[in-house]
Amino acid sequence: MIVVTTPTGNIGRHVLGRLLDAQATIRVIVRDPGKLPQAARDRVEIVEGSHSDPGVVDQAFRGAQAVFWLCPPTPQKTPDAATVEFSRPAAEAMRRHGIGHIVALTTLGRDTPWQEKAGMATSSIHMVDLLRETGAAIRGLASPGFMDNALGLVDSLRQGHMFGAISPDKKLPHTAVRDIGEAAAGLLLDRSWTGQIDVPVLGPEEYSYNDLARIISQVTSHVVRYQHVPFETLKARLVTSGWPDAFAQAFIDMMRAKDEGMDNMAPRASAIIGPTRFEQWVEEELKPVL
Asked: Most CB within 10 Å of its CB: which of 3, 49, 52, 281?
């Protein structure tokens, strides 16, 4: 039995789809079962509720061998509350029920000079540390920025610009969420691995934000330019849009660490390299939306 959290989310749905294709025995934790595709509802065991709820995770992990773990974004909480404290009831239930393998989504940054000062990334690393205390074999899938984040910028892209505080020519790894989902499902299906390590999941190439704007322009024939703004300006915009100050600051601290080179330290030789290039992702995912 494999338990999948966030099965209707951007990454979880890819994990679930791959496991269904492999005819795995699956249990999902989901707040609204109606959001699951009908084909999935007919083939999985459903535990309704939040995976931060002690009763829900106790029920879900009973008799399970492996778990896909992902903390949903909750800007109403502090980053530690949204990751470490969110995961605490699940960690206790994993230990109690003897879960043998955990695949958890995390960020890059472990074992770098930024590990304890990268805001959201630091909290995510601490969340995996908590899961390691269960004694299970763990793979923290350490991801860089998602190509799919561009889908949240559609309104700005239609106006011809994308904003950010990362230096315009700073090349960074980016990954498609479908490639992360494929990597997670592969580890859940073949559980011959042991130990507790984080594994980067990277795309084929590194891109600067000027590169991303250029590729979007070329593929969609819709001219887009990257507009660089100071970190303080970006934080002010986030707070104005409704983000709590602490959460906005944690995001800025993570972005600053990326700008300073945190993500570039990910070892490609030992990473999982997804096949999706940004040009392909734009053609297949962004262009139809634009």
From this structure: 3
Q: What is the pLDDT of residues 136-146, one digit of tens each?
A: 999 999 999 99
In the predicted structure, residue 89 carries a pLDDT above the cut 90: yes
State yes or no: pLDDT of 204 exceeds 80.
yes
pTM beyond 0.70, yes or no: yes
Cα dist from 140 to 35, 115, 127, 286, whole Å: 27, 15, 10, 28
Residues with Cβ within 8 Å of 145's Cβ and at least 6 positions away in sequence, in order, are 172, 173, 174, 175, 258, 263
Give the dihedral sign, CA 209/11/282/270. Answer: positive
Which residues, 6 or more positions from 88, have their beta carbon under 8 angstroms from its beta carbon? 130
pLDDT the model gives residue 231 = 95
On the question of pLDDT at 7 being above 80, the answer is yes
d(CA 7, CA 213): 31
* 41 in Cβ contact with 22 (< 8 Å): no
Q: Token pair 């002690």 is at which residue? A: 54
Q: Where are the alpha helices (DSSP H) in the chain?
A: 12-21, 38-41, 54-61, 79-80, 86-97, 120-132, 154-158, 177-189, 209-220, 231-240, 245-259, 278-281, 287-289
β-sheet with 196-202: strand ranges across:
45-48, 26-30, 2-5, 66-69, 101-107, 137-143, 196-202, 272-273
How is domain 2-148+175-204+264-275 classified at the architecture level of CATH? 3-Layer(aba) Sandwich (3.40)
121-150 average pLDDT score: 97
